[in-house]
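Quick one: structure for this chain?
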Amino acid sequence: MRFLLVEDEAVLREVVQNSLIQAGHRVDAAATAEQARHLWRVQPFDAVLLDLNLPDANGLDVLREQRKRGDRTPVLVLTARNRTDERIAGLDAGADDYLGKPFELAEVEARLRALVRRAQGAEDRTEVGGLLLDRRARRLFVRARGAGPPAELELPAREFEVLLELMTPPGRVVNKQTLSDKLSGFDDALGHNALEAFVSRLRRKLHGSGATIRTLRGLGYLVEPEKGGAE
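Got it. Here's what it folds into:
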């Protein structure tokens, strides 16, 4: 998943960003409201972690602006302002959840997973054909034909990210540009040719799993059960 972290405190920003990256997520960070506005407008995110005490504006102003634009990205407010009236103000401004400082890093990630599940209608465990995805553990399994436990399917990180996006949730067409944007950073853009190469390799590795990736010309990619594959 890809998150936007808006936090002006440098040490805390680095700690939270590194924690989420180590958990397998992509994280863009902003220290000011101006930076946050720019990143939020040009890049799609699965969720936003938003501090309120920014040096150039109140974080709630940034949130209100995005909601007025029709942006429904889930927002987790992280702040030392933890009084009841302040939490109510944050929720009324359009926040989806509120976590006061200090906080545990594990709880931050757990709340983000919950926000994304609600927003995208995706469970922690998803199955397509015989392919099982455990988002929380970031592991893939292929259900064995007949008896026996599922076998783990190990993928390089980049290929796993592509499949994770396509299966969050499955059954929907994912536009190529949207997929490229979600998996790109400002210093490592994922072009369409590279994306197609990842998808091609994934198709080969998924053969026999009961799931496949179909290309819908002009629309994007769709993960669906493989014809004649695992039930």
